[in-house]
Amino acid sequence: MITSTAIGRTTAEPTLSYTKTGSQPVANFTIASDNRDKTTTFLRVTVWGKLAETVAEHLAKGQQVAASGRLEAAEYADRQTDEKRTGWTLTADQVEFLAKPRGTATAATTPDDGQPF
Length: 117
Hints:
This protein is mainly β. Helices cover 9% and strands 53% of the residues.
């Protein structure tokens, strides 16, 4: 088992669903993280239980988050080329909301001299 923390911005609103028995909520979302080599890494994040409901209610597209948990790889065939690829999923037990989506108002402002307070 690999534990990891990923930081990035959400690519869409989270989806919330429930197990077949309806007893366990699960939320899924994807975060995009820019790399030093000017590429972007996309990581699927899955969250269970009360945290899933909180994420689905409060997380918005474009919001910056940090998600920590168990990182797992799964192989799949690319639909267009039929090549084998590896996808990564982070099953998060912690999600921290870091910044609001770009273009939305924030509580903190910067004074006229450009220095944060």
